[in-house]
Amino acid sequence: MGDVYFYHLTRRPLEAVLPDLLARSLARGWQVALRGTDAGRMAWLDERLWLEPADGFLPHGLAGGPHDAMQPVLLTTEPAMPNGAACLMAVDGAEVSGEEVGALDRVCILFDGNDDAALARARAQWKALTGAGCAAKYWSEESGRWEMKAEAGG
């Protein structure tokens, strides 16, 4: 069973945090599904990921193309992960089930700490997933670097 990591973004926006987290996941040998809730937002993130990192290349694609199964990082709004993802990154309050956490190596839930609705959604996801028996870790960047602040379940 995988773990679910909650990333509380307080200092940098999602598009600044994603390239590093995605690169770390790829370095572990994981295919990644990046799940959002709005196709327009996912297209916007797709454009941003072509610009970062400035000194490298982050291979990825937007779902709905002919090569979805071959994408190391697949941006989607759907629950299906045709690229065989071992890691799911959920943004903008995208749904994640306890069954998914159990079937994957890692699930990451990234949420904007400056948005009250996003905070409430993340709290509800924490409660639901730990209640389903998932091991969860809460990470904050409040100090300027990622620090684990809480751990539950498992």
Describe this structure in words.
The chain has 154 residues and is of the alpha/beta class. The protein has one domain (3-152): Rossmann fold, CATH 3.40.50.10110. Helix content is 32%, strand content 27%. It contains four helices and eight strands, in the order E-H-E-H-E-E-E-H-E-H-E-E. It has helices spanning 14-27, 39-51, 98-103, 116-131, and strands at 3-9, 32-35, 61-62, 73-76, 87-91, 106-112, 135-140, 147-152. An eight-stranded mixed sheet has the order 3-4-2-5-6-1-7-8, with helices on both faces. Helix 3 (98-103) links the parallel strand 5 and strand 6 (106-112). The longest helix is centred in the C-terminal third of the chain and has 16 residues, at 116-131. The chain is globular and about 40 Å long. The mean pLDDT is 93.
Q: Please count the helical segments.
A: 4
What share of the residues does DSSP label as strand, in percent? 25-35%
CATH architecture assignment: 3-Layer(aba) Sandwich
What would CATH call the class? Alpha Beta
Write down the overall geometry: globular
Strands, count: 8
**CATH superfamily, please?**
DNA polymerase III subunit chi
The biggest beta sheet reads:
8 strands, mixed
Please compute the radius of gyration using only Cα atoms.
Answer: 14 Å
Average pLDDT confidence is: 93
- Secondary-structure element sequence? EHEHEEEHEHEE
Structural class: alpha/beta
Low-confidence stretches: none
Distance between the termini: 9 Å
Share of helical residues? 25-40%
